[in-house]
Protein backbone atom coordinates (compact mmCIF):
# COMPACT_ATOMS: atom_id res chain seq x y z
CA UNK A 1 0.00 0.00 0.00
CA UNK A 2 1.16 3.55 -0.80
CA UNK A 3 2.62 5.29 2.25
CA UNK A 4 1.38 8.78 1.37
CA UNK A 5 -1.06 8.78 4.31
CA UNK A 6 0.36 8.70 7.82
CA UNK A 7 -1.51 7.39 10.85
CA UNK A 8 -2.78 10.84 11.84
CA UNK A 9 -4.15 11.47 8.36
CA UNK A 10 -5.97 8.13 8.38
CA UNK A 11 -7.44 8.84 11.81
CA UNK A 12 -8.89 12.07 10.42
CA UNK A 13 -10.32 10.22 7.43
CA UNK A 14 -11.98 7.60 9.64
CA UNK A 15 -13.32 10.30 11.96
CA UNK A 16 -14.74 12.29 9.05
CA UNK A 17 -16.30 9.17 7.56
CA UNK A 18 -18.00 8.20 10.83
CA UNK A 19 -19.28 11.74 11.35
CA UNK A 20 -20.56 12.52 7.88
CA UNK A 21 -20.76 9.63 5.37
CA UNK A 22 -23.91 7.54 4.96
CA UNK A 23 -22.72 4.22 3.52
CA UNK A 24 -24.77 2.19 1.07
CA UNK A 25 -26.63 -0.89 2.30
CA UNK A 26 -25.20 -0.44 5.78
CA UNK A 27 -26.58 -0.33 9.33
CA UNK A 28 -24.48 2.33 11.07
CA UNK A 29 -25.28 1.48 14.69
CA UNK A 30 -22.12 -0.70 15.01
CA UNK A 31 -19.98 2.33 14.05
CA UNK A 32 -20.80 3.89 17.41
CA UNK A 33 -18.29 1.47 18.92
CA UNK A 34 -16.26 0.44 15.87
CA UNK A 35 -14.88 1.83 12.63
CA UNK A 36 -16.15 1.41 9.09
CA UNK A 37 -13.81 -0.20 6.59
CA UNK A 38 -12.21 2.35 4.31
CA UNK A 39 -10.51 1.12 1.15
CA UNK A 40 -7.39 3.18 0.55
CA UNK A 41 -5.83 1.68 -2.56
CA UNK A 42 -6.29 -0.98 -5.23
CA UNK A 43 -3.94 -2.69 -7.67
CA UNK A 44 -4.89 -5.51 -9.99
CA UNK A 45 -7.06 -7.86 -7.94
CA UNK A 46 -5.93 -6.53 -4.55
CA UNK A 47 -7.17 -3.72 -2.31
CA UNK A 48 -5.90 -2.35 1.00
CA UNK A 49 -7.88 -0.88 3.90
CA UNK A 50 -6.98 1.87 6.38
CA UNK A 51 -5.23 -0.64 8.62
CA UNK A 52 -2.95 -1.81 5.83
CA UNK A 53 -4.73 -5.16 5.51
CA UNK A 54 -4.55 -6.62 2.00
CA UNK A 55 -7.55 -8.33 0.42
CA UNK A 56 -7.99 -10.39 -2.71
CA UNK A 57 -11.18 -8.93 -4.18
CA UNK A 58 -13.39 -11.71 -5.52
CA UNK A 59 -16.39 -9.43 -6.21
CA UNK A 60 -14.84 -6.65 -8.33
CA UNK A 61 -15.49 -3.74 -6.02
CA UNK A 62 -18.22 -5.48 -3.97
CA UNK A 63 -20.86 -4.87 -6.66
CA UNK A 64 -19.52 -6.60 -9.80
CA UNK A 65 -17.98 -3.52 -11.40
CA UNK A 66 -14.17 -3.39 -11.72
CA UNK A 67 -13.94 -5.86 -14.61
CA UNK A 68 -10.39 -5.01 -15.70
CA UNK A 69 -8.94 -4.64 -12.20
CA UNK A 70 -7.61 -1.71 -10.22
CA UNK A 71 -4.82 0.74 -11.06
CA UNK A 72 -5.25 0.91 -14.84
CA UNK A 73 -3.18 3.96 -15.69
CA UNK A 74 -4.25 3.87 -19.34
CA UNK A 75 -7.88 4.43 -18.36
CA UNK A 76 -7.02 7.16 -15.88
CA UNK A 77 -4.88 8.90 -18.50
CA UNK A 78 -7.66 8.69 -21.10
CA UNK A 79 -10.11 10.26 -18.64
CA UNK A 80 -7.66 13.00 -17.66
CA UNK A 81 -6.89 13.89 -21.26
CA UNK A 82 -10.56 14.03 -22.20
CA UNK A 83 -11.56 16.11 -19.18
CA UNK A 84 -8.89 18.67 -19.96
CA UNK A 85 -10.40 19.05 -23.45
CA UNK A 86 -14.03 19.21 -22.35
CA UNK A 87 -15.47 17.57 -19.27
CA UNK A 88 -19.14 18.03 -19.99
CA UNK A 89 -21.77 19.30 -22.35
CA UNK A 90 -25.41 18.28 -22.33
CA UNK A 91 -26.14 15.26 -24.50
CA UNK A 92 -28.34 17.46 -26.67
CA UNK A 93 -25.01 17.78 -28.48
CA UNK A 94 -22.51 15.05 -29.23
CA UNK A 95 -18.92 14.52 -28.08
CA UNK A 96 -15.89 12.79 -29.55
CA UNK A 97 -15.70 9.94 -26.99
CA UNK A 98 -19.49 9.61 -26.92
CA UNK A 99 -19.64 9.14 -30.69
CA UNK A 100 -16.67 6.80 -30.87
CA UNK A 101 -17.72 4.61 -27.98
CA UNK A 102 -21.27 4.31 -29.33
CA UNK A 103 -19.84 3.12 -32.65
CA UNK A 104 -17.51 0.66 -30.90
CA UNK A 105 -20.29 -0.64 -28.67
CA UNK A 106 -22.72 -1.22 -31.53
CA UNK A 107 -20.01 -3.23 -33.33
CA UNK A 108 -20.26 -5.69 -30.43
CA UNK A 109 -24.07 -5.84 -30.55
CA UNK A 110 -25.36 -7.05 -33.94
CA UNK A 111 -28.96 -6.02 -34.45
CA UNK A 112 -28.72 -3.03 -32.11
CA UNK A 113 -28.27 0.49 -33.39
CA UNK A 114 -28.64 3.41 -30.97
CA UNK A 115 -26.96 4.31 -27.66
CA UNK A 116 -28.59 6.57 -25.09
CA UNK A 117 -26.15 7.73 -22.39
CA UNK A 118 -27.09 8.03 -18.75
CA UNK A 119 -25.32 7.78 -15.41
CA UNK A 120 -26.54 4.63 -13.64
CA UNK A 121 -28.06 1.25 -14.30
CA UNK A 122 -31.26 2.24 -12.51
CA UNK A 123 -31.63 5.27 -14.73
CA UNK A 124 -30.83 3.29 -17.89
CA UNK A 125 -33.65 0.89 -17.03
CA UNK A 126 -36.02 3.78 -16.38
CA UNK A 127 -35.25 5.16 -19.85
CA UNK A 128 -36.35 1.86 -21.37
CA UNK A 129 -39.48 1.85 -19.21
CA UNK A 130 -40.33 5.37 -20.38
CA UNK A 131 -39.85 4.38 -24.01
CA UNK A 132 -42.21 1.43 -23.56
CA UNK A 133 -44.85 3.74 -22.08
CA UNK A 134 -44.42 6.33 -24.83
CA UNK A 135 -44.58 3.65 -27.54
CA UNK A 136 -47.84 2.48 -25.96
CA UNK A 137 -49.27 5.93 -26.54
CA UNK A 138 -47.77 6.46 -29.99
CA UNK A 139 -48.59 3.03 -31.43
CA UNK A 140 -51.25 1.35 -29.30
CA UNK A 141 -53.63 4.11 -28.31
CA UNK A 142 -52.40 4.27 -24.74
CA UNK A 143 -52.62 0.50 -24.21
CA UNK A 144 -49.74 -1.99 -23.78
CA UNK A 145 -48.30 -0.03 -20.85
CA UNK A 146 -47.66 -3.03 -18.60
CA UNK A 147 -44.07 -4.12 -18.02
CA UNK A 148 -43.39 -7.66 -16.85
CA UNK A 149 -40.44 -8.47 -14.60
CA UNK A 150 -39.20 -11.70 -13.07
CA UNK A 151 -39.18 -12.96 -9.51
CA UNK A 152 -35.64 -12.69 -8.04
CA UNK A 153 -34.44 -10.21 -10.70
CA UNK A 154 -33.28 -6.71 -9.74
CA UNK A 155 -33.38 -3.63 -11.93
CA UNK A 156 -32.47 -0.69 -9.71
CA UNK A 157 -33.06 1.38 -6.61
CA UNK A 158 -35.38 4.14 -7.85
CA UNK A 159 -39.11 3.92 -7.21
CA UNK A 160 -39.80 3.03 -10.83
CA UNK A 161 -37.19 0.28 -11.00
CA UNK A 162 -38.23 -1.04 -7.59
CA UNK A 163 -41.71 -1.31 -9.08
CA UNK A 164 -40.05 -3.93 -11.27
CA UNK A 165 -38.14 -5.42 -8.36
CA UNK A 166 -38.27 -9.17 -7.87
CA UNK A 167 -36.51 -9.08 -4.49
CA UNK A 168 -39.07 -8.34 -1.80
CA UNK A 169 -36.64 -7.38 0.95
CA UNK A 170 -35.04 -4.78 -1.32
CA UNK A 171 -38.43 -3.17 -1.95
CA UNK A 172 -39.93 -3.55 1.54
CA UNK A 173 -41.06 -0.29 3.20
CA UNK A 174 -40.65 1.75 0.01
CA UNK A 175 -44.10 1.39 -1.53
CA UNK A 176 -46.55 2.21 -2.88
CA UNK A 177 -45.02 1.62 -6.28
CA UNK A 178 -45.85 2.62 -9.84
CA UNK A 179 -48.77 0.77 -11.43
CA UNK A 180 -48.67 -1.65 -14.36
CA UNK A 181 -45.56 -3.59 -13.34
CA UNK A 182 -46.37 -7.31 -13.15
CA UNK A 183 -44.24 -10.16 -11.82
CA UNK A 184 -43.60 -13.44 -13.62
CA UNK A 185 -42.10 -16.57 -11.95
CA UNK A 186 -38.38 -17.24 -11.68
CA UNK A 187 -36.71 -19.92 -13.81
CA UNK A 188 -34.41 -21.48 -11.22
CA UNK A 189 -34.15 -25.19 -11.92
CA UNK A 190 -32.60 -25.94 -8.51
CA UNK A 191 -35.82 -24.69 -6.91
CA UNK A 192 -38.25 -25.89 -9.57
CA UNK A 193 -40.37 -27.47 -6.84
CA UNK A 194 -41.41 -23.92 -5.88
CA UNK A 195 -42.97 -23.63 -9.34
CA UNK A 196 -44.73 -26.99 -9.25
CA UNK A 197 -42.45 -28.22 -12.03
CA UNK A 198 -40.35 -30.74 -10.09
CA UNK A 199 -41.29 -33.47 -12.58
CA UNK A 200 -39.49 -31.66 -15.42
CA UNK A 201 -35.80 -31.11 -16.13
CA UNK A 202 -33.51 -29.60 -18.74
CA UNK A 203 -35.14 -28.12 -21.83
CA UNK A 204 -38.59 -29.37 -20.79
CA UNK A 205 -38.32 -27.40 -17.58
CA UNK A 206 -36.88 -24.40 -19.43
CA UNK A 207 -39.79 -24.19 -21.82
CA UNK A 208 -42.30 -24.71 -19.03
CA UNK A 209 -40.70 -21.92 -16.98
CA UNK A 210 -41.03 -19.63 -20.00
CA UNK A 211 -44.62 -20.77 -20.58
CA UNK A 212 -45.38 -19.31 -17.17
CA UNK A 213 -44.65 -15.89 -18.70
CA UNK A 214 -47.21 -16.54 -21.42
CA UNK A 215 -49.75 -17.45 -18.75
CA UNK A 216 -49.21 -14.04 -17.12
CA UNK A 217 -49.56 -12.26 -20.47
CA UNK A 218 -52.84 -14.05 -21.15
CA UNK A 219 -54.11 -13.33 -17.65
CA UNK A 220 -53.28 -9.62 -17.91
CA UNK A 221 -54.45 -9.37 -21.52
CA UNK A 222 -51.91 -9.30 -24.40
CA UNK A 223 -53.28 -5.94 -25.52
CA UNK A 224 -52.06 -4.43 -22.21
CA UNK A 225 -48.53 -5.86 -22.02
CA UNK A 226 -45.81 -3.72 -23.59
CA UNK A 227 -42.50 -5.22 -22.46
CA UNK A 228 -40.73 -7.97 -20.58
CA UNK A 229 -37.62 -7.00 -18.57
CA UNK A 230 -35.19 -9.79 -17.61
CA UNK A 231 -31.60 -10.22 -16.49
CA UNK A 232 -29.67 -12.65 -18.73
CA UNK A 233 -28.29 -14.22 -15.56
CA UNK A 234 -30.15 -13.26 -12.39
CA UNK A 235 -27.53 -11.52 -10.25
CA UNK A 236 -28.37 -10.52 -6.67
CA UNK A 237 -31.27 -12.95 -6.66
CA UNK A 238 -28.88 -15.90 -6.47
CA UNK A 239 -26.74 -16.01 -9.66
CA UNK A 240 -29.29 -17.96 -11.68
CA UNK A 241 -28.70 -19.01 -15.27
CA UNK A 242 -31.83 -19.86 -17.20
CA UNK A 243 -32.15 -23.53 -18.22
CA UNK A 244 -31.87 -24.84 -21.75
CA UNK A 245 -34.87 -23.98 -23.90
CA UNK A 246 -35.94 -20.99 -21.81
CA UNK A 247 -34.66 -18.08 -23.88
CA UNK A 248 -35.82 -19.46 -27.22
CA UNK A 249 -39.33 -19.82 -25.81
CA UNK A 250 -39.21 -16.34 -24.21
CA UNK A 251 -38.35 -14.76 -27.56
CA UNK A 252 -41.10 -16.75 -29.28
CA UNK A 253 -43.66 -15.54 -26.73
CA UNK A 254 -42.58 -11.90 -27.05
CA UNK A 255 -42.93 -11.99 -30.83
CA UNK A 256 -46.30 -13.70 -30.63
CA UNK A 257 -47.82 -10.99 -28.44
CA UNK A 258 -45.83 -7.95 -29.68
CA UNK A 259 -44.06 -7.62 -26.34
CA UNK A 260 -40.78 -5.70 -26.40
CA UNK A 261 -37.88 -7.65 -24.89
CA UNK A 262 -35.69 -5.65 -22.50
CA UNK A 263 -32.47 -7.35 -21.33
CA UNK A 264 -30.90 -5.81 -18.24
CA UNK A 265 -27.12 -6.28 -18.63
CA UNK A 266 -26.16 -3.89 -15.81
CA UNK A 267 -24.21 -6.72 -14.13
CA UNK A 268 -23.52 -9.15 -16.99
CA UNK A 269 -22.57 -6.64 -19.69
CA UNK A 270 -19.08 -6.08 -21.09
CA UNK A 271 -17.49 -9.42 -20.41
CA UNK A 272 -18.70 -10.72 -17.07
CA UNK A 273 -20.07 -13.99 -18.49
CA UNK A 274 -17.35 -14.57 -21.10
CA UNK A 275 -19.13 -12.84 -23.99
CA UNK A 276 -19.55 -9.10 -24.50
CA UNK A 277 -23.15 -9.44 -23.28
CA UNK A 278 -24.90 -12.21 -21.43
CA UNK A 279 -27.82 -12.45 -23.85
CA UNK A 280 -25.39 -13.32 -26.65
CA UNK A 281 -24.95 -16.81 -25.20
CA UNK A 282 -28.53 -17.59 -26.16
CA UNK A 283 -28.94 -16.21 -29.68
CA UNK A 284 -31.83 -13.90 -28.84
CA UNK A 285 -32.47 -10.43 -30.30
CA UNK A 286 -33.65 -7.92 -27.68
CA UNK A 287 -35.34 -4.59 -28.31
CA UNK A 288 -33.58 -2.86 -25.41
CA UNK A 289 -30.29 -3.64 -23.68
CA UNK A 290 -29.26 -1.70 -20.58
CA UNK A 291 -25.78 -1.71 -19.06
CA UNK A 292 -23.65 0.08 -16.48
CA UNK A 293 -21.18 -1.48 -14.05
CA UNK A 294 -18.55 -3.05 -16.30
CA UNK A 295 -18.89 -0.52 -19.11
CA UNK A 296 -15.98 1.51 -17.73
CA UNK A 297 -14.99 -0.83 -14.87
CA UNK A 298 -15.84 1.86 -12.33
CA UNK A 299 -13.20 4.32 -13.55
CA UNK A 300 -15.95 6.81 -14.45
CA UNK A 301 -19.72 6.84 -14.13
CA UNK A 302 -21.47 5.69 -17.29
CA UNK A 303 -24.55 3.70 -18.22
CA UNK A 304 -26.25 3.06 -21.55
CA UNK A 305 -29.68 2.20 -22.85
CA UNK A 306 -29.18 0.60 -26.26
CA UNK A 307 -31.99 -0.08 -28.69
CA UNK A 308 -32.74 -1.00 -32.29
CA UNK A 309 -33.22 1.23 -35.30
CA UNK A 310 -36.82 0.05 -35.42
CA UNK A 311 -37.50 1.46 -31.95
CA UNK A 312 -35.52 4.61 -32.73
CA UNK A 313 -37.52 5.21 -35.91
CA UNK A 314 -40.75 5.34 -33.91
CA UNK A 315 -39.54 8.66 -32.52
CA UNK A 316 -38.58 10.23 -35.86
CA UNK A 317 -41.75 12.16 -36.53
CA UNK A 318 -42.37 15.33 -38.54
CA UNK A 319 -45.98 15.66 -37.47
CA UNK A 320 -47.29 18.79 -35.78
CA UNK A 321 -47.48 17.00 -32.44
CA UNK A 322 -44.96 18.79 -30.21
CA UNK A 323 -44.81 15.71 -27.92
CA UNK A 324 -43.68 13.35 -30.67
CA UNK A 325 -40.04 12.78 -29.60
CA UNK A 326 -38.38 11.15 -26.59
CA UNK A 327 -38.52 14.05 -24.15
CA UNK A 328 -35.89 12.86 -21.73
CA UNK A 329 -32.52 14.03 -20.46
CA UNK A 330 -29.90 12.62 -18.11
CA UNK A 331 -27.70 15.44 -16.84
CA UNK A 332 -24.60 13.37 -16.27
CA UNK A 333 -25.17 11.44 -19.48
CA UNK A 334 -23.32 14.41 -20.94
CA UNK A 335 -20.11 13.74 -19.00
CA UNK A 336 -17.29 12.82 -21.36
CA UNK A 337 -15.20 10.93 -18.81
CA UNK A 338 -17.51 7.91 -19.00
CA UNK A 339 -17.26 7.11 -22.71
CA UNK A 340 -13.54 7.99 -22.69
CA UNK A 341 -13.00 5.43 -19.92
CA UNK A 342 -15.29 2.94 -21.64
CA UNK A 343 -13.32 3.09 -24.89
CA UNK A 344 -10.08 2.31 -23.08
CA UNK A 345 -11.78 -0.35 -20.97
CA UNK A 346 -13.00 -2.10 -24.12
CA UNK A 347 -9.56 -1.85 -25.73
CA UNK A 348 -8.00 -3.56 -22.70
CA UNK A 349 -10.55 -6.37 -22.77
CA UNK A 350 -9.89 -6.96 -26.46
CA UNK A 351 -6.10 -6.69 -26.46
CA UNK A 352 -5.56 -8.73 -23.31
CA UNK A 353 -8.00 -11.48 -24.36
CA UNK A 354 -10.05 -11.05 -21.20
CA UNK A 355 -13.21 -12.64 -22.59
CA UNK A 356 -11.26 -15.83 -23.21
CA UNK A 357 -9.63 -15.56 -19.79
CA UNK A 358 -13.03 -15.06 -18.19
CA UNK A 359 -14.28 -18.29 -19.72
CA UNK A 360 -11.16 -20.25 -18.76
CA UNK A 361 -11.00 -18.96 -15.19
CA UNK A 362 -14.75 -19.35 -14.79
CA UNK A 363 -14.41 -23.00 -15.77
CA UNK A 364 -11.64 -23.41 -13.20
CA UNK A 365 -13.66 -21.76 -10.44
CA UNK A 366 -16.71 -23.91 -11.20
CA UNK A 367 -14.54 -27.02 -11.08
CA UNK A 368 -12.99 -25.96 -7.77
CA UNK A 369 -16.39 -25.28 -6.26
CA UNK A 370 -17.70 -28.65 -7.47
CA UNK A 371 -14.81 -30.26 -5.59
CA UNK A 372 -15.84 -28.31 -2.50
CA UNK A 373 -19.42 -29.46 -3.03
CA UNK A 374 -18.21 -33.06 -2.77
CA UNK A 375 -16.41 -32.19 0.45
CA UNK A 376 -19.01 -29.96 2.11
CA UNK A 377 -22.61 -31.19 2.15
CA UNK A 378 -23.75 -27.66 2.97
CA UNK A 379 -23.20 -26.69 -0.69
CA UNK A 380 -26.43 -27.60 -2.40
CA UNK A 381 -25.83 -26.12 -5.84
CA UNK A 382 -23.05 -24.47 -7.85
CA UNK A 383 -24.08 -22.42 -10.87
CA UNK A 384 -23.11 -19.50 -13.07
CA UNK A 385 -21.58 -18.32 -16.31
CA UNK A 386 -18.01 -17.12 -16.90
CA UNK A 387 -16.69 -15.32 -13.84
CA UNK A 388 -20.14 -14.86 -12.40
CA UNK A 389 -20.77 -17.79 -10.07
CA UNK A 390 -22.92 -18.67 -7.08
CA UNK A 391 -22.78 -21.45 -4.50
CA UNK A 392 -26.06 -22.00 -2.66
CA UNK A 393 -25.80 -23.21 0.93
CA UNK A 394 -28.46 -25.50 2.38
CA UNK A 395 -29.14 -27.22 5.67
CA UNK A 396 -30.18 -30.41 3.91
CA UNK A 397 -29.62 -31.37 0.27
CA UNK A 398 -32.77 -33.45 0.08
CA UNK A 399 -35.15 -30.79 1.38
CA UNK A 400 -33.03 -27.91 0.02
CA UNK A 401 -33.77 -25.95 3.19
CA UNK A 402 -31.62 -22.80 2.99
CA UNK A 403 -29.07 -22.01 5.66
CA UNK A 404 -29.88 -18.92 7.68
CA UNK A 405 -28.62 -15.64 6.22
CA UNK A 406 -26.59 -14.99 9.38
CA UNK A 407 -24.77 -18.29 8.95
CA UNK A 408 -24.00 -17.48 5.34
CA UNK A 409 -22.65 -14.11 6.53
CA UNK A 410 -20.28 -15.94 8.87
CA UNK A 411 -18.72 -17.67 5.86
CA UNK A 412 -18.27 -14.32 4.13
CA UNK A 413 -16.77 -12.80 7.28
CA UNK A 414 -14.33 -15.68 7.74
CA UNK A 415 -13.15 -15.32 4.14
CA UNK A 416 -12.63 -11.62 4.84
CA UNK A 417 -10.54 -12.45 7.89
CA UNK A 418 -8.42 -14.61 5.60
CA UNK A 419 -7.96 -11.63 3.28
CA UNK A 420 -10.46 -12.64 0.58
CA UNK A 421 -13.59 -10.57 -0.12
CA UNK A 422 -16.54 -12.60 -1.39
CA UNK A 423 -20.23 -11.69 -1.65
CA UNK A 424 -23.60 -13.19 -0.80
CA UNK A 425 -27.27 -12.60 -1.38
CA UNK A 426 -28.41 -10.55 1.58
CA UNK A 427 -31.60 -8.80 2.65
CA UNK A 428 -33.05 -9.48 -0.77
CA UNK A 429 -35.30 -12.56 -0.86
CA UNK A 430 -37.16 -13.58 2.31
CA UNK A 431 -35.73 -16.86 3.56
CA UNK A 432 -33.54 -17.27 0.48
CA UNK A 433 -30.45 -15.18 1.21
CA UNK A 434 -28.18 -18.20 1.20
CA UNK A 435 -26.00 -17.96 -1.92
CA UNK A 436 -22.30 -17.11 -1.88
CA UNK A 437 -21.46 -14.88 -4.86
CA UNK A 438 -18.21 -14.67 -6.83
CA UNK A 439 -17.35 -12.21 -9.57
CA UNK A 440 -13.58 -11.67 -9.65
CA UNK A 441 -12.11 -9.32 -12.25
CA UNK A 442 -11.65 -10.69 -15.75
CA UNK A 443 -7.87 -10.51 -15.19
CA UNK A 444 -8.00 -13.27 -12.55
CA UNK A 445 -5.23 -15.88 -12.71
CA UNK A 446 -5.39 -19.55 -11.79
CA UNK A 447 -3.60 -18.71 -8.54
CA UNK A 448 -6.22 -16.07 -7.75
CA UNK A 449 -9.06 -18.50 -8.38
CA UNK A 450 -7.44 -21.18 -6.23
CA UNK A 451 -6.85 -18.67 -3.42
CA UNK A 452 -10.52 -17.68 -3.47
CA UNK A 453 -11.85 -21.22 -3.34
CA UNK A 454 -9.24 -22.23 -0.72
CA UNK A 455 -10.55 -19.43 1.50
CA UNK A 456 -14.11 -20.68 0.99
CA UNK A 457 -13.01 -24.22 1.86
CA UNK A 458 -11.41 -23.00 5.09
CA UNK A 459 -14.43 -20.87 5.99
CA UNK A 460 -16.91 -23.71 5.43
CA UNK A 461 -14.78 -26.01 7.54
CA UNK A 462 -14.67 -23.46 10.34
CA UNK A 463 -18.34 -22.52 10.27
CA UNK A 464 -19.87 -25.94 9.59
CA UNK A 465 -17.14 -28.30 10.72
Automatic annotation (TrEMBL):
Entry keywords, A to Z:
Aminotransferase, Pyridoxal phosphate, Pyruvate, Transferase
Pfam families the record matches:
Aminotran_3 (PF00202)
Q: Which CDD domains match?
A: OAT_like
Q: Which cofactor does it need?
A: pyridoxal 5'-phosphate
What terms describe the molecular function in GO for this protein?
Answer: pyridoxal phosphate binding; transaminase activity
Family label: Belongs to the class-III pyridoxal-phosphate-dependent aminotransferase family.
Q: Which PANTHER family match?
A: AMINOTRANSFERASE, AMINOTRANSFERASE CLASS-III
Report what the protein is called.
Answer: Taurine-pyruvate aminotransferase
Species, as recorded: Shimia gijangensis
Amino acid sequence: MDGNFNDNDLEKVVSADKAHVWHHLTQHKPFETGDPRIIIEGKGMRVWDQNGKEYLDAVSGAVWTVNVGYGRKAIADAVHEQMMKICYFAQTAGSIPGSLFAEKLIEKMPGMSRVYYTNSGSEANEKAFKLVRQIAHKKYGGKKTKILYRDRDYHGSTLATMSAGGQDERTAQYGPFAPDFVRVPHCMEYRKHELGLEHLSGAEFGRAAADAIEEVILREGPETVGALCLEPVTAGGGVIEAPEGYWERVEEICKKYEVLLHIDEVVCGVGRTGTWFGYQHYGIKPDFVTMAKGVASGYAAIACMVTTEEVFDMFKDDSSDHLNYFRDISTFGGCTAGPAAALENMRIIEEEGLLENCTAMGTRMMANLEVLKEKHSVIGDVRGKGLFIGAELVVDRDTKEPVDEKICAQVVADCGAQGVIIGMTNRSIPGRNNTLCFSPALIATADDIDAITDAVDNALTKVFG
